[in-house]
Amino acid sequence: MAAGNAAPDFSVAGKVVLISGGTGGIGMAFANAFAACGATPILTDLKPPPEGTPFRYEPLDVRDDAAVRALAAKIERLDVLIHCAGRLIRHEEHQPEVFADIVNIHLTGNMRLATAFRPHLARTKGCLINIGSMYSYFGAAMIPAYAAAKTAIVGLTKSLAVAYAEDGIRVNAIAPGWIRTEISRRGREEPAFNEKVMARLPTKRWSEPEELAGTAVFLASPAAQLVNGVTIPVDGGYVAS
Ligand SMILES: NC(=O)c1ccc[n+]([C@@H]2O[C@H](COP(=O)([O-])OP(=O)(O)OC[C@H]3O[C@@H](n4cnc5c(N)ncnc54)[C@H](O)[C@@H]3O)[C@@H](O)[C@H]2O)c1
User: Fold this and answer.
1) I want to staple 175 with a disulfide (CB 3.0 to 4.6 A). Which of 94, 105, 130, 233 is the partner?
2) Is the pLDDT of residue 1 over 70?
3) Are 170 and 225 in contact (CB under 8 A)?
4) Ligand 1 contact via 87 beta carbon (within 6 Å)
5) What's the sign of the alpha-carbon dihedral 34, 35, 40, 42?
6) Helix (H) or strand (E) holding 80
7) pLDDT tens digit string along 162-198?
8) Is the minimum distance from the CB of 179 to ligand 1 under 6 angstroms?
9) How far is CA 142 from the centre of its chain?
């Protein structure tokens, strides 16, 4: 980095950004934001993007080791990996097999992708962005697997930041607040749950996925070169309140 009074470099132009869960609400908002900044998103997901989506799409189940390795072999260059795939199943996560499946998607899936793409990121001195949640900070009676995995993402982010530093790879996470997407739909539509969230939330509104994108772009940019191993709540002040 040049000394002096140069403006911070927030540029991500030319970077290739692979997004798991990329056709979901937050994944697609990230893809659009990175593309608008001159980067090239690659979407991976269980479900294909809508017709006409202008980005490369690779089908992927993040629970499938062989499929993750096969995708890594197909991708030539990667600067930014974002693990956005996610699912929750209200009331059912106390069943051990459901618990294991949800943890597999969020946590083991994160590790699986990180391991498969570490060599790519090492070549570009790239970065990994993981996705936590408000449930990284407190418990959730209805979705214990989701909350356990999201809490563990904070620890995994620190561990991988330390482990990958020798390759020049930075690892951080975003903990989104209450965002209007499919995964949160049932909670939003349930008056008692909605009221409880709004009572604590300083901004008093559900947020749009686009409101997270600036933080993702920042974390991927040279301006964040010293930011490593942290989970940043982007939550309208919920954790603080
Ligand atoms: N929306 C919120 O309020 C909120 C808050 C905190 C954290 N998050 C997290 O943000 C991330 C993105 O969620 P979203 O809000 O965009 O929800 P979403 O439901 O719109 O997107 C999730 C995407 O993950 C995909 N997916 C599920 N299982 C998968 C698998 N096994 N392999 C590959 N893809 C799979 C789904 O097909 C979907 O496209 C998730 O990790 C979620 O837990 C969301």
Assistant:
1) 233
2) no
3) yes
4) yes
5) positive
6) strand 80-83
7) 999 999 999 999 999 999 999 999 999 999 999 999 9
8) yes
9) 22
Bridge partner residues of 80 (DSSP): 17, 127
Nearest of 28, 27, 120 to residue 68 by alpha carbon: 120
Give the C-alpha separation, 193 to 206, whole Å: 12
Give the whole-angstrom CA distance, residue 227 versus residue 127. 11
CA distance 150 to 148: 6
CB-ligand 1 contact for 183 (6 Å cutoff): yes
Q: pLDDT by residue (tens digit) across 2-34?
A: 556 799 999 999 999 999 999 999 999 999 999
Tokens for 203, please give them.
């901004």
- Interaxial angle between packed helices 25-36 and 210-220, expressed in degrees from 0 to 180 and rounded to the nearest 10: 60
Contacts of 134 (CB under 8 A, 6+ apart): 175, 176, 177, 178, 233, 235, 238, 239
H-type alpha helices, 44-130: 65-74, 96-103, 109-124
164 is catalytic: no
| Domain layout of the chain by residue ranges | 16-234
Residue listed under structure tokens 């090492």: 122
Closest protein CA for atom 41 of ligand 1? 86
Q: Which fold has domain 16-234?
A: Rossmann fold (3.40.50)
The token duo for 228 is 């490593």
Paired tokens of 128: 């990994």
56-63 LR contacts (CB < 8 Å, sep 24+): 57/22, 57/23, 60/20, 62/20, 62/21, 62/105, 62/109, 62/112, 62/113, 63/101, 63/104, 63/105, 63/108, 63/109
